[in-house]
């Protein structure tokens, strides 16, 4: 028998006997009552009535109880309790069809209460009871695996889908791509995608998103054009993914073209698409266009506001970033960790050290947001820019987590700018910490050797470079890029194989000569 907790049982009213003079049979009456339930409490009362009346063996009632608990308004009110009750019912009544188990698995997988992992447990219970899964089962099981990056579980489910002949179903394949992508197994996702005999727009969107999630932004954009060449018309989701990839590679021309496609195809610029546009323009440096899109948006969420704040802050518009932050708070929108990163960057660029320290304190004490490494890095950058190198060093040493190499390099850069001769003694301490933390990172050693050389410590610089040679460490070539007419050109330090290398050098010599003539005049 299904057991309930004491608190639940105490709320259930004593069941009344069925009225024999009623026009309905007990079976019909219970089914009618189930259909009219509006709360979990009512479902539990009728469930108890069914058990007492000996009607609990009827699969129609069981299916209806599971359906009520896993969908509709009742689940929305009592999400965790409802889905867990449905799971217990499914486990107790062992002769259920796969459709009832699918309802339980789907409810867990689509839950927003952190229950996604439970979908995998429900699937295992289903298989233990000998119920065969179908093409409606696997998409939500793969979704569950993706939620907790369960690669091992996902591969086992992949094998089970193959065994049950569901592997060629497009919905199952799309969910497999999603699962492998979230587990950072790009090649496995590509293997599923390449073997698909029939692809939908969701298939292309999933593969584009997987590339973007794994950092292969150029490949994500390339897939977008392949999708268009295959006859598919992109939707809002496609454009969000493409714009996000475009933002990461910093290609403003492509981003503007994508925006033109949004307008040309008459797409509705909803909150998600509008946020992607603001983020793209902000990251590509066109804060004027970002602001235009932001101001025209009807609905904004915290990510929209944060993207606008970050966009202003990263490009030196600190005052505007802080104004947007104040406006956001006036709209009673609660900031998140990204919002505060933008605010701290803005304070750093504007030299507002006291305001930055206040916001950093408020982040955890007022809003309950635990600082991440990037927030600590922003604070170190802020103190370093203000010339408070000792305070910055003390701040790093007092952090509740161990500082990473990025943070130490930021502090060393500040030392190099604010205190070249190391009068404060902070630079040497930071160098020691950086070498101790990342002894084999050539970039750190080159940076430190250059610092030694600039202050005349030639022996230390040569000693460090000698150690690099002995360990076989080489300096990573510097890289820069420039965009011309929508095409991005990349240049590597010391690489003279560029297609127009001779012309570029000739132009540089002419410009150099021109500057010398101007200086003489």
TrEMBL record:
Keyword terms: Repeat
Start and stop residues of the PPR repeats: 97-133, 200-234, 301-335
PROSITE patterns linked: PPR
Coiled coil: none
PANTHER family: PENTATRICOPEPTIDE REPEAT-CONTAINING PROTEIN
Molecular-function GO term, any one: RNA binding
Alphabetical list of InterPro entries matching this protein: E_motif, PPR_At4g14850-like_plant, PPR_rpt, TPR-like_helical_dom_sf
Origin superkingdom: Eukaryota
UniProt xrefs under Pfam families: E_motif (PF20431), PPR (PF01535), PPR_2 (PF13041)
One GO term of the biological process aspect: RNA modification
Keyword Flavoprotein: no
Keyword Aminoacyl-tRNA synthetase: no
Name listed for the protein in its UniProt record: Pentatricopeptide repeat protein
């Amino acid at each position: 028998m299904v057991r309930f907790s004491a608190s639940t049982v105490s709320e259930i009213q004593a069941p009344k006997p069925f009225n024999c003079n009623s026009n309905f049979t007990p079976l019909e009456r219970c089914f009618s009552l189930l259909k009219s339930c509006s709360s979990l409490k009512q479902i539990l009362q009728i469930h108890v009535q069914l058990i007492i009346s000996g009607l609990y063996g009827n699969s129609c009632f069981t299916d209806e109880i599971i359906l009520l608990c896993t969908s509709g308004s009742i689940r929305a009110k009592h999400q965790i309790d409802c889905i867990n009750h449905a799971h217990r019912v499914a486990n107790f009544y062992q002769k259920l069809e796969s459709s009832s188990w699918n309802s339980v698995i789907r409810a867990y997988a689509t839950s927003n209460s952190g229950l996604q992992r439970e979908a995998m447990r429900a699937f295992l219970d289903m298989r233990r009871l000998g119920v065969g899964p179908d093409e409606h089962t696997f998409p939500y099981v793969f979704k569950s695996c993706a939620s907790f990056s369960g690669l091992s579980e996902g591969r086992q489910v992949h094998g089970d889908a193959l065994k049950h002949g569901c592997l060629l179903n497009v919905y199952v394949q799309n969910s497999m791509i999603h699962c492998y992508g979230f587990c950072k197994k790009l090649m496995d996702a590509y293997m599923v995608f390449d073997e698909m005999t029939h692809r939908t727009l969701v298939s292309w969107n999933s593969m584009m998103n997987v590339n973007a999630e794994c950092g292969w932004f150029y490949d994500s954009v390339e897939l977008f054009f392949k999708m268009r060449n295959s006859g598919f018309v992109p939707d809002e989701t496609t454009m969000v993914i493409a714009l996000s990839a475009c933002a990461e590679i910093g290609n403003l021309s492509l981003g503007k073209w994508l925006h033109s496609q949004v307008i040309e195809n008459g797409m509705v610029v909803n909150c998600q698409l509008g946020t992607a546009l603001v983020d793209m323009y902000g990251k590509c440096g066109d804060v004027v266009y970002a602001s235009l899109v932001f101001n025209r948006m009807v609905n904004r969420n915290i990510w929209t506001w944060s993207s606008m704040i970050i966009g202003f802050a990263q490009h030196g518009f600190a005052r505007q970033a802080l104004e947007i932050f104040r406006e956001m708070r006036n709209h009673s929108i609660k900031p998140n960790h990204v919002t505060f990163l933008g605010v701290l960057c803005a304070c750093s660029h504007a030299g507002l050290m006291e305001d930055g320290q206040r916001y950093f304190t408020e982040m955890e004490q007022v809003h309950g947001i635990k600082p991440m490494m990037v927030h600590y890095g922003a604070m170190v950058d802020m103190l370093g820019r203000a010339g408070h190198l000792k305070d910055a060093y003390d701040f790093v040493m007092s952090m509740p987590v161990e500082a990473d190499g990025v943070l130490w390099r930021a502090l060393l850069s500040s030392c190099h700018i604010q205190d070249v001769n190391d009068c404060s003694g902070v630079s040497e301490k930071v160098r020691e910490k950086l070498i101790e933390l990342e002894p084999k990172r050539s970039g750190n050693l080159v940076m430190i050797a250059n610092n030694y050389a600039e202050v005349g410590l030639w022996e230390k610089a040569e000693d460090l470079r000698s150690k690099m040679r002995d360990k076989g460490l080489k300096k990573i070539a510097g890289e820069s890029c420039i965009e011309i007419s929508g095409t991005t050109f990349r240049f590597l330090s010391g690489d003279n194989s560029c297609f127009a290398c001779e012309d570029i050098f000739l132009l540089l010599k002419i410009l150099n000569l021109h500057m010398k003539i101007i200086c003489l005049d």
